[in-house]
Amino acid sequence: MPELPGLRLPDYVAERVRDLEEGRAEPAAPRDASTVVLLRDTAGGGIEVYMLRRVTSMPFAPGAYVFPGGSVDARDGDRTLGWAGPSPAEWGAAFGAGDTLARELVCAAVRETFEESGVLLAGPTADTIVGDLGGDDWEADRRALLDRSLSLAALLGRRGLVLRGDLLRPWAHWITPVIEERRYDTRFFVAALPEGQRARDVSTESDRVTWVRPQAAVEAARRGEMALLPPTMVTLTELTAYDSVAAVLAAERAVRPWLPETRVTGDGAYLVLPPELDGHLPGGRAVSAVDGNVTGGRP
Question: CA within 20 to 30 Å of 250's CA: 8, 39, 55, 186, which one?
């Protein structure tokens, strides 16, 4: 049998696949979500990416290294929010989404980045950005966003800020495989760490944060030292081609949705990426979000 361009999954996944194929189970509806690949240049050349390791108690991908991000909140579409940069229609064209969803995705990207890293892509005007956010008042606002007692629109409005969507760029679009019980329809953005701000270890959903070179992360995954979901691994592999943040932000990206498939063969179940992405997953180990276990590499 020819090799499948995929990742070996735990044996019990085959039963889930059969349940779905034979109608004994229904696939979960994916939730719209945003994730932001936060980047910075290094003194010696090259780029680093900000990553968080999810705590082992998380129901989705525990122990995996991820980028800041999360689900769209109902209030992310608030039209009273100050807005600078590409219009929702332009974002919708980039991501294949309607204007309302596009607005929600961009707002979710900014909100989740602030909640999980303390970095805020907003400024007093369309061409300025807030500086140091390390004060107690900013931490109180971040926590209020987390417990949903404050919306992003209310936070920006009270502080006289506008969302700086022009600091983001569209990068990718991934949909969680149908075998997963928790599924997300996630748009990936890239952004530079704003000058004067610093990413902080503040997320309650992670037990470790790190700035890492994309190549180093890919090699660590190959050695089994970093657990990565396939979309994360593919993104990091793509980023190894760039030597500066400016080059990443200037990249022309034709974003299309990727939906990995699960195939069952005589020797097990495999998560299979589209042929266009063959070679983007290094050998070694990757996380299956089914239960967060680190599962084997290419057959």
Answer: 186
